[in-house]
Amino acid sequence: MAGLGLRPERRTVILVAVLTALILGLGLLGLCYGASWKSPGEVLAALSGAEPSVVIQDWRLPRVLAALVFGAALGVSGALFQNLTRNPMGSPDVIGLDAGAYTGALVALTVLSGTSAQLALGSVLGGLVVAAVIYVLAYDRGFSGLRLVVIGVAVNAMVTALNSWIVLRAELEVAIAAVGWNAGSLNGVGWGDLGIPFTVIGVLLALMAARAHAMHQAALGDAVAVTTGVSLDRLRLVMVLVGVGCTATVTAVAGPIAFIALAAPQIGRRLAGAPGVPLLPAALTGAVLLQGADLIAQMLLAPVALPVGVVSTAIGGCYLIWLLTKEVARA
Question: Can you list the residues of the chain whose pLDDT is less than 70?
Answer without folding.
Answer: 1-8, 141-143, 275, 327-331
